[in-house]
Amino acid sequence: MATTKQPNRFRPSAKSKHHSHSIRENSSSTADKANSSNTPTITWWQFALFGGGCTVGTAFFLGSSLAIQKSGYLVLPLFALVAIVTYFVYDALARMTANQPEKGSFRTYAKQAFGRWAGFSNGWVYWASEMLILGASLTALGLFSRFWFPAVPLWIFATGYAVLALLVVILGSQGINKAENMFAIVKIAAVLMFIGVAGVAVFQGGKEVVPLPKTTDAWLKGGWTGAWKGLLYSFYAFSGIEVMGFMAMNLKNPKDAPKSGRIMLIAIAVLYILSIGLAMMFVPIESVTQEESPLILALEAIGIKMLVHILNGVLIIAGFSILVASLYGVSTMLVTLSEDGDAPKLLSKSWGKRKLPIYALGMNAIGMSVSILMALWIPKQIFEHIVTAGGLVLLYVWLFIVASYLKLLKPSVWGQVKSWFAILILLLAALGALLEPAGRTGFWTSLVIVAIIASVTVGMQFKWKKEEKKTA
């Protein structure tokens, strides 16, 4: 564990001090404020369960197929590597949260570390990434549903799930926390069921079982280039940890955040590696497609049709839970941007007794509508393109989380080693998208998104300077 060399409070830079949230004298006052709100506090194990609900979803169940296609058997050690790096990123966020909980989570920390421009751009980059990831989730849900109803157009399913997700978010964070915990239990139970069934089938040694390679050459069949290509999609399978930053305000003891994430990520990494490893013993790599989960393909090979349908239902539940969690997180982000003056004031206005951010949800509904239109216009390979672009933009947010941690907490040597290692692997994952034509579309799309936000940020800086002169 890394220890910090500074007292447990953040100090905004001179550039950000005027516009940032007032920094409380200690983190306990912030925690007390959270505890006194209408949202009940949660324990560390409930928070870990919530994290599992945010992470295990379509990004794993369907996104893993992309990682397998690119990396072959090397996807298994890749998952182990990515789990470690994901923990380093999460640990950086969790330590900042334990030090000083903030409603705006990593966006607020970026602002405190580097100034208002960082908070503004980080918030909007995250919003863009979540719109793409929401689109990927809607697409995956549509693909899973078409397993039963192949004649129904993809966009109809996407529209239906988008409306349902908006309705669930209306219940508020208390409802989401309970729902995510329930969904997490269902998803984890389904993965364990698959591991048990596939494990028994392997033990019985049917003709459909193909043992994992025993030679280095067989493992490296796709080459190191293939592993590099699959690195991004392996990270995508762990996307969702950043949403935990928003819910961390509800932790009974914010200092439990690092422990919760560590236990959650270890458990998820073991489940991922075991389930995908077993699936690859029943499904040849060349048979893996972007339209079906490798776990579904494996159960079909084993020949248990009832379990195929049960698992497909769980995949829909898993995808929907991620959709709801992402929608909650990005809505919270829009509200904090608005409250900070970095988005239209309208977006922070609430409605009704639940103080629902109706305008923020409306903006997110527009973003999801764009994804639905994309599903209507370009249904072929849309999942890979959206995943690539969304995954890349999310990695940029993760890079900022680590950079903010380095600036604010100034960790010990071990903390710096972990952080710089994470930065290196994240950059390698982003560059891996350039190795093939399909990935380049998403790569350049992500850069266009970042370039647009950067241009707007530069324009906003002129506005902020004028405002400073008027108030000086």
TrEMBL record:
Keywords: Amino-acid transport, Membrane, Transmembrane, Transmembrane helix, Transport
InterPro entries: AA-permease/SLC12A_dom
Protein's membrane topology: Multi-pass membrane protein
Region annotation (Disordered) ranges: 1-37
Membrane in keyword set: yes
Predominant subcellular localization, coarse grouping: membrane
Database matches in Gene3D superfamilies: Amino acid/polyamine transporter I
Subcellular location: Membrane
Composition bias type Polar residues, residue spans: 25-37
Domain spans labelled Amino acid permease/ SLC12A: 50-427
Biased composition (Basic residues): 12-21
TM helices/strands, residue ranges: 47-68, 74-93, 124-148, 154-172, 184-203, 231-251, 263-285, 314-337, 358-379, 385-405, 417-435, 441-460
Signal peptide: none
Keyword Transmembrane helix: yes
Descriptive protein name: L-asparagine transporter-like permease
Biological source species: Paenibacillus shirakamiensis
Phylogenetic classification of the source organism: Bacteria, Bacillati, Bacillota, Bacilli, Bacillales
